[in-house]
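Q: My collaborator sent me two sequences in one message, no labels, and asked for predicted structures for both. Can we handle them in order? The first one she listed is below.
A: Yes, handling them in the order given. First sequence, followed by its structure tokens:
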Amino acid sequence: MMQDLITKLIEKKAEDVVLIDTTPLTPYYDECIIATALNQRHIKSLIEFTEDYLIENGLRVKDIQGTPDSEWMIIDAYDTIIHILTDNERTRLSLDQIIKRNR
């Protein structure tokens, strides 16, 4: 199911979309998706699309954190955490490297 979401996000022009297995890191979720949005408006659009996609496919959304103005939003979908952020924010946070380094 998450692989289908990744395909859909790429179709919606998300960039550098990755799926990372986080089971060695935390008992709270199994994987995270990280995707880069083109700008703040694109973040909002991708978050809305992702939330709708998850619900339409029978998955629950626990919480959504952040605002498009913050350049980083997170969807907590219980077993999967989805990060959508601008390229500047992704570079600044080095989120991919932090997660991969701690596996």
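Q: And the one she listed second?
A: Here it is, processed independently of the first:
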Amino acid sequence: MCLPDNYKLLEDISYTGSANPRQFLDIAYPENKTGGLYPVILFIHGGAWMNGSKEDQILVRLAPYLNNRAIGIAINYRLSDEAIWPAQLEDCKSAIDWICENADKFNIDTDKICVWGSSAGGHLAAMLGVKCKSSVSAVINQYGPSQMDIINMDHFKDHELGNPLEKLVGGTRQEKMQAVIDASPFYHIDGTEPPFLNIHGENDPVVEYEQSVILNRALREAGATSYLIKIVNGVHSLPDIPELKERISQFLDKHLFGLDVAAPSEDPVIAPPE
């Protein structure tokens, strides 16, 4: 995937002022600023809070949705071997602060910031949506954990990097229950959240599908706008399905770009083509 012709890509910009590459971002923006202010789509990578990178995420994830009308940003954040919770969320907040501080330079509309993440990044995007409501206007959560006190991490028991949740909070779930609760988007919902689009494979072997069901239900019951897309037979990945791309575009059209379009179906079920 390529960026639109008018776009310039800047890489490895420090969003905290530090020299730590885990606090760098990439930004793709229109060079000929003829469209007024631009919304931002901020992508947060996955990797169980233990690995992963911003590299190529703008090209792989965001390029199809920029369309000369949005700025794409992808960030790194400190991993759990370097800093425990809430350092990861604090880094994401700092990235949003950088966006606001550099709004004039890049013609950014700071009232239109969508945060989008996958897996651990989906969790962080959801956390921004429930704890930074004044800074975030839309959230796309791909198969992110939402209620950490009940999530099943047994499949990580023999993982070479260890248990992701224990590494994130710096101890076992029982020892660090308050941090586990604090790191759960589910427990911060109050109904004033921005619109959420949750996407999850029904057979996800890493983060069970029920984690998105729980989050979607809690958001709706609190009065927030939330959608859940179930991928039939989907696993822990985002499949290349045209209908799914259309649903994402529809969500962004309505809730980021502010177009007068129909609301997405509340609970679409999408099956990969045979």
